Automatic annotation (TrEMBL), chain B:
The keyword Oxidoreductase applies. One of its GO terms (biological process) is pyruvate decarboxylation to acetyl-CoA. This is TPP-dependent acetoin dehydrogenase complex, E1 component subunit alpha. Keywords: Oxidoreductase, Thiamine pyrophosphate. GO terms for molecular function: pyruvate dehydrogenase (acetyl-transferring) activity. Residues 15-313 form the Dehydrogenase E1 component domain. Its cofactor is thiamine diphosphate. The keyword Ligase does not apply.
Length: 343, 322
């Protein structure tokens, strides 16, 4: 059996291999090594944290502080510097500690990095991978738990990927770093401990290609990130009633894989999209709109979205659990479509 | 720093004239409606872009501002293609997709005019970080206005440049107004250069209308950056001949006093007089440069006017690297 490592280790390994392969790859972020200029750590070539969750642990000792750069707490400064470094030939991988901090540095992504190539008539190339994390479920409250990949996905000129498992995380991260565009790589912080089989070699997972994780004929469920596990549980439960759900892990939020989703809906005639982002103008809404437009004649019922409510993420554990989409809510939603199926 | 050579003095005089003629013509043409959108003219501030860029090569990077035409010209961007860009033509430096506020030419080290006030700071330190990481002796220069000095990017970027000793020079063009708002109203520190000490870097305020003052201060700062000694902040006191953008009635400008004195000064004849007196430039050569510059700008206008508009399909091109 192949080796099993955590989601966090898979990301660390992806970074490590990308850095080993290409010297132009540098990492920047707050405490991604930690303890800069602390003498006793320097003597032992040790990092203090390796990132707030430890994702980048060990990379500074291996590659040095010239390539694993602890920044001051200056998101717009180092994110904008990454744009400048990318425009001039490096391949920076800045880490935005939590995607909730995007407000501090959005200009550098929205108005600078994503638009340079277009504004400059095709002369610029911005090969930059922004690592960040999203997701509720860690009792981190409203300013450290949001899911904002959909906001970034609405900006032309950037790609956004959301891996659901260690295998995809490593391969997608390598693909993102090799990509000549701005790619946002959004990690669900509650998945960091998840273990699965991950090859030791350097490999890529294609950006823009969704994966069918379970085949079915009665209902399509499209998921983003860890919502995959909600859908797989739902599919198991529905199977006991003889309903076969097809589960699609979207993987890439921008540009999302319209072909795979639409082909599945043409087969099943029913669609539920599970997206942890707040419900208005999110990725699920976009998918519903496109499927409604492109596959209307194949639909046997309304397209359903199961999302977080239109509230900030609450702190209390019971409220936070209520906030997150779960299998019961999806089953209730599916029941509306399935009643129709039984008629 | 190298003493100003004859060859460099000629180069400077040509660039100063090119900028002035370019901007005066754009001012004129804009009023006829042939140029779409907004333009922010650099006329009056020529000594800064030329005095700084006289020390740079194509391998050095600059970031620019809303008021970017002067920086583009001084950094060596093609006049014909610049004018075509401002007209929104296919032959423009950015194929007509950037316009006045986004003219860029990365091959010349020109990382773009910028529609975001203060947007250039972090990009400049990123380019400087690249220069340092690749162990080159190339530098980055960040031009910014007095308005941009109050953006958060100023603080974050200068602080980071200081702690990492990046090869970057921050050149402030203090033309007294951020749009209509006086610098003396908008800044808690009287002099923008005074803030340098808060970041542990050298800072000085100079006469931005005096080409030689800019040339010398920039030369010293750029040398320092090339030697790996870190960033410098230079505040150049200057004045824009026109409004914030074309169409600005400029009601806020003072009609007398120190401001009027500053407005009345013209660094181009001032430099000519200096260079002729120092035998860096003969009067004949200066006349010839003035004439050539007029012809070059006329050529650029003709090129722009005769160029085709962008093809419709180009709307969709260059969003991504394929």
């Amino acid at each position: 059996m192949a080796r099993r490592i955590t989601f966090m280790k898979a990301i660390n390994e992806g970074l490590d291999m990308a850095m080993e392969k290409d010297e132009r790859v540098i990492l920047l972020g707050e405490d991604i090594a930690g303890g800069a200029k602390v003498d006793h750590l320097a003597k032992q070539n040790e990092d203090a944290w390796g990132g707030v969750f430890g994702v980048t642990k060990g990379l500074m000792p291996k590659y040095g502080r010239e390539r694993v750069i602890d920044t001051p707490i200056s998101e717009m400064g180092y994110m904008g510097a990454s744009v400048g470094a990318a425009a001039t030939g490096l391949r920076p991988v800045p880490e935005l500690m939590f995607n909730d901090f995007i407000g501090f540095c959005l200009d550098t992504i929205l108005a600078q990095g994503s638009k340079m190539r277009y504004m400059f008539g095709g002369k610029a190339k911005i090969p930059m991978t922004i690592r960040t994390c999203h997701g509720a479920g860690a009792s981190a409250a409203a300013q450290h738990s949001g899911s904002y990949y959909g906001i970034l996905a609405s900006i032309p000129g950037i790609k956004v990927v959301v891996p659901s498992n260690p295998y995809d995380a490593k391969g997608l991260l390598i693909a993102a770093i090799e990509d000549d565009n701005v790619v946002v790589f959004s990690e669900d912080k509650t998945l960091y401990g998840l273990k699965d089989e991950v090859p030791e070699e350097y490999y890529k997972v294609e950006i823009g290609k969704a994966k069918i994780k379970r085949e079915g004929t009665d209902l399509t469920i499209v998921t983003i990130g860890k919502m995959l596990y909600v859908a797989l549980e739902v599919a198991e439960r529905l199977a006991k009633d003889g309903i076969e759900a097809e589960v699609i892990d979207l993987i890439t939020v921008a540009p999302w894989d319209q072909e795979t989703v639409i082909n599945s809906v043409k087969k099943t005639g029913r669609l539920i999209i599970i997206d942890e982002a707040n419900p208005h103008n999110n990725t699920a809404t976009d998918i519903a709109s496109v499927v409604g437009d492109q596959a209307f004649d194949y639909l046997d019922g309304p397209i359903k979205k199961v999302c977080a409510p239109n509230t900030p993420v609450p702190f209390a554990t019971n409220l936070e659990q209520l906030y997150l989409p779960n299998a019961d809510r999806v089953i209730e939603t599916a029941a509306e479509l399935i009643d129709d199926l039984k008629k | 720093m190298e003493k100003l050579s004859k060859e460099r003095a000629e180069w400077i005089y040509k660039k100063m004239n090119d900028i002035r003629n370019f901007e005066d013509e754009v001012h004129q043409i804009f009023s006829t409606g042939s140029i779409p959108g907004f333009v922010h003219l650099y006329a009056g501030e020529e000594a800064i872009a030329t005095g700084v860029c006289a020390h740079l090569t194509d391998k050095d990077y600059i970031t620019s501002t809303h008021r970017g035409h002067g920086h583009c010209i001084a950094k060596g961007c093609d006049l014909d293609k610049m004018m075509a860009e401002i007209y929104g033509k296919e032959t423009g430096l950015c194929k007509g997709k950037g316009g006045s506020m986004h003219i860029a030419d990365i091959d010349k080290g020109m990382l773009g005019a910028n529609g975001m006030v203060g947007g250039g700071f972090p990009i400049a330190i990123g380019a400087a970080l690249r220069n340092k990481y690749l162990k080159t002796d190339d530098v980055a220069v960040c031009f910014f206005g007095d308005g941009a000095a109050n953006e958060g990017t100023f603080h974050e970027s200068i602080n980071m440049a200081s702690i990492w000793k990046l090869p970057v020079v921050f050149v402030n063009e203090n033309n007294s107004y951020g749009e209509t708002t006086p610098q003396k109203y908008a800044s808690g520190s009287k002099r923008i250069a005074d803030r340098a000490s808060a970041y542990g870097i050298p800072g000085e305020t100079i006469d931005g209308k005096d080409l030689m003052a800019v040339y010398e201060a920039a030369g010293k700062a750029i040398d320092r950056a090339r030697k790996g000694e870190g960033p410098t902040l230079i505040e150049c006191i200057t004045y824009r001949n026109y409004g914030h953008f074309e169409g600005d009635e400029q009601k806020y400008k003072a009609k007398e006093g120190q401001e009027k004195d500053l407005a009345d000064r013209d660094s181009i004849p001032e430099f000519r007089e200096y260079a002729v007196a120092e035998k860096l430039l003969s009067a004949e050569k200066a006349d010839q440069i003035e004439q050539t510059s007029v012809e070059d700008i006329e050529h650029a206008i003709k090129f722009a006017e005769e160029s085709p508009i962008p093809k419709p399909e180009s709307l969709y091109e260059n969003v991504f690297v394929d």
